[in-house]
Amino acid sequence: MDSSFNLFTGAIIMVIGLIMAGAAWTFFRRFKNLSSALNRAHEMTQTANGSISELVAVRRRNRSFRWTNEYPVVSFPANGKQYNVQLSFAEKRAGHYTLGSGCRVCYVPHDPQCCVVEEFRKPMQRARTQYLIWTIVLCFFTLNCITGGIGAFLTAFIG
């Protein structure tokens, strides 16, 4: 084969590998964010009755559609103070959450910002598992792309 073809192929494969590495990093960050709260579940010995005090709108779009999602901000009393925690991982289509609706919040007594709304615990665990699986799969394909690109570059230069 022509060495310029191998260089071009190697460059394309490396670009694809870098895109997959970025996606793997994104899934890994999401996994770590959910794990940080879920791994402290054994410390969450206090509970409080909270409510959805605010709905934060997030605008999404693709090539064909635009839509609005929302995630709740939960307010709950702890240690004599009122805490507000944004639950960005609980993003749903607009209209799913009702402002003022009640929820049960489990929190760490000395760090009330570290909390989990009881109804979101199982979805958080499922999402954490999915993020880990996607991270592993994307890392595997990233490794394949990078080694394939390096192989194509070596073939072009060494022959």
* Dominant shape: elongated
Total of DSSP H or I helical runs spanning 4+ residues: 2
Low-confidence stretches: none
**Mean of pLDDT:** 90
Largest sheet features? 6 strands, antiparallel
Fraction in helix: 40-55%
- Secondary-structure content class: alpha+beta
* C-alpha end-to-end distance: 9 Å
Q: What percent strand?
A: 25-35%
Overall number of strands: 6
Q: What integer value in Å does the Rg equal? A: 22 Å
Order of helices and strands: HEEEEEEH
Short summary:
The chain contains 2 helices and 6 strands, in the order H-E-E-E-E-E-E-H. The protein has 159 residues and is an alpha+beta fold. Strands 1, 2, 3, 4, 5 and 6 form a 6-stranded antiparallel beta sheet that branches.
Structural notes for this entry:
This protein has helices spanning 3-38, 121-158; strands spanning 46-61, 66-78, 81-86, 92-93, 102-108, 111-117. Strands 1, 2, 3, 4, 5 and 6 form a 6-stranded antiparallel β-sheet that branches. The model has no long low-confidence stretch (mean pLDDT 90). It is built from 2 helices and 6 strands. It is elongated and about 70 Å long. By secondary structure, it is α+β, with helices and mostly antiparallel strands. α1 packs antiparallel against α2.
Defining key terms:
single chain, 159 residues, six-stranded antiparallel β-sheet
Question: How would you summarize the topology of this molecule?
Answer:
Blueprint lengths: L2 H36 L7 E16 L4 E13 L2 E6 L5 E2 L8 E7 L2 E7 L3 H38 L1
Antiparallel strand pairs: 1-2, 1-5, 2-3, 2-4, 5-6
Helix pairs in contact: 1-2
